């Protein structure tokens, strides 16, 4: 239900955002500027500049859209976390029963160790959700991408294991912080990880790499899968809204709307960053993101 609600919110948000962009660019002309059949049509370029109050309304709508996108992300996270938490609770329940049935010290020690491990994992899950809901700012600020990736993997651990997906990470030592919104970038990372998982229905490997660019201007993040790859003719459209290479949502209810990658590009563009895709049919796909390095870290370098 949370995933479905998140998808609906994202759909409304992206359609509204598209409309706003068309108004700003002149692509949609208000009724006041329409003419009769006998009048010379007024081009969007010659239409009067919207008054300041209209511009303020546009800015307000954009701010509201960012809030909606954050709520959609939180809804998606809650859906994933619910499954993860249920798995943890079942582990605790089963080993508690084991400890009750077996009174020997060895069995009880084993049960208590498993229960302790499960509760520590539960604490990580709740910590990740609380960080998303409360602790991270929506503003652009120095952000440790390593922790964003780690938190995302905690939330998707059960899902990746279920679909036989191995994860390999390569985090360069002393990778600098990026100027970013932690909440928004986590949404991007989760989307890319889920896309990679869906590209490998028979299992495979996701490789995540985090490093500083050679020119020391960017933090580079790549997410690479060993899936089927994307045909060359489809690559130019991969970030278009409502364009999808999938037939619809998978059995988990995720994907297939054509909104995920379009939203990812919008977020990265708003960060003054870059995102590109590299893919070879039969070998897999990689998404590479560049985000600006925090200025204070550039000065210290």
Search tags:
301 residues, alpha+beta, Heat Shock Protein 90, 2 domains, 5-stranded mixed sheet, globular, disordered N terminus
What this model shows, in words?
The protein is α+β, with helices and mostly antiparallel strands. It has 2 domains: 1-135; 138-301, 2-Layer Sandwich (Heat Shock Protein 90), CATH 3.30.565.10. It contains 7 helices and 7 strands; from the N terminus they run αααβαββαββαββα. The chain has helices spanning 2-25, 52-101, 105-135, 145-162, 182-198, 260-270, 295-300; strands spanning 141-143, 165-171, 178-180, 204-212, 218-225, 274-280, 284-292. The strands form 2 sheets. A 5-stranded mixed β-sheet has the order 2-4-5-7-6, with helices on one face. The chain has a two-stranded antiparallel sheet with strand order 1-3. β4 (204-212) and β5 form a beta hairpin. The longest helix is centred in the N-terminal third of the chain and has 50 residues, at 52-101. The N and C termini lie far apart (47 Å). 29% of the residues are buried.
């Amino acid at each position: 239900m949370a995933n479905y609600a998140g998808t609906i919110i994202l759909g409304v948000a992206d359609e509204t955002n598209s409309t706003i962009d068309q108004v700003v660019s002149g692509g949609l002309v208000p009724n006041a500027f329409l003419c009769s059949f006998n009048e010379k049509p007024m081009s969007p370029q010659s239409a009067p500049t919207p008054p300041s109050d209209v511009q303020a309304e546009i800015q307000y709508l954009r701010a509201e859209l960012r809030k909606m996108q954050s709520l959609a992300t939180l809804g998606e996270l809650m859906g994933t976390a619910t499954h993860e938490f249920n798995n943890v609770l079942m582990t605790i329940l089963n080993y508690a029963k084991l400890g009750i049935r077996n009174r020997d010290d060895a069995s009880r020690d084993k049960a208590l160790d498993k229960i302790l491990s499960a509760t520590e994992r539960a604490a990580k899950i709740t910590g990740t959700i609380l960080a998303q809901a409360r602790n991270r700012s929506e503003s652009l600020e120095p952000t440790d991408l390593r922790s964003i990736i780690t938190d995302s993997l905690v939330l998707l651990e059960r899902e990746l294991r279920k679909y036989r997906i191995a994860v390999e990470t390569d985090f360069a030592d002393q990778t600098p912080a990026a100027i970013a919104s932690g909440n928004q970038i986590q949404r991007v990372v989760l989307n890319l990880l889920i896309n990679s998982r869906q590209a490998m229905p028979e299992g495979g490997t996701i490789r995540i790499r985090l490093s500083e660019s050679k020119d020391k201007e960017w933090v580079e993040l790549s997410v690479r899968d060993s899936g089927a790859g994307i045909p060359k003719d489809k690559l130019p459209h991969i970030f278009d809204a409502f364009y999808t290479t999938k037939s619809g949502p998978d059995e988990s209810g995720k994907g297939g709307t054509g909104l995920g990658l379009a939203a990812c590009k919008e977020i990265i563009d708003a960060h003054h960053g870059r995102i590109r895709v590299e893919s070879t049919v039969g070998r897999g796909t990689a998404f590479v993101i560049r985000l600006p390095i925090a200025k204070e870290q550039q000065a210290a370098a």
